[in-house]
Amino acid sequence: MDQAKRPKRPMTEEERAALAKKLDDDLEHFIEEMAAKKASEKVEKKPFDFDEWCKDIDQHPAFMTDLETGLKGNYADTIEALQALKYDEDDAEDKQLNAERHRKDGNKHFELKKYRWATDCYTEGIALNSIASYLLLDLFHLSYFAAIPAPSGLKQKCLDRKLNSVLHGNRAAAQKRIGNLRSAIKDCAMARKFDPTNLKAALRGAECLLELGYANQCIEWIESSKKTFAFAKETEEEGRHWFAFH
């Protein structure tokens, strides 16, 4: 059998842990490079540009639409590692179901005003439903807030973008009730990245920015949210037309 077509074997726990650490280290280095570049810029501060943000963040393999084989460069090893995760999803459906259970449990705690317990439940759900939700670090936050410290390990590949968006949006709501406004904003950015039509997350992010006194950033956030929402709805409508005639 041709080696390229040979089925990949499932990773062992040791291999999974080693791969998680490698991806962690690589992403942390990537974020440090972006932060250093931002700090070294001596030009007049410009308004937040969503298109430019997409170009910058898409340079990392974690955000690539297609993980192309045979690529060379700084992230060739990272691409290979991410591809390896594709063959380790036997329990993917169970993880997604468990993530949904954590969402429901979190909602119950939220209704009882046990916001820290709710936050913990949403965090567990995110870990189950995403390879690394913290990867969706918005460059907007690199401009105004401290970078997110990298967690101890990467989790399961993203299974359901809508569910991930809801989990991050719900955790943002709980964080806001606790008073962790910066953490809430980061979750709102991730919720919007997973689902640009998540208006609750967009509005909550704007509220948090206003409460922190970032009026200009709030306006930029609203404008970029309107742009991503319009693009998502247009793409969704085009998809409906395509399926209607094919």
UniProtKB/TrEMBL annotation:
SMART domains in alphabetical order: TPR
Single GO biological process annotation from the record: protein folding
GO MF: Hsp70 protein binding; Hsp90 protein binding
UniProt xrefs under Gene3D superfamilies: Tetratricopeptide repeat domain
GO-annotated cellular components: cytosol; nucleus
InterPro entries per record: TPR-like_helical_dom_sf, TPR_rpt
Protein name in the entry: Tetratricopeptide repeat protein
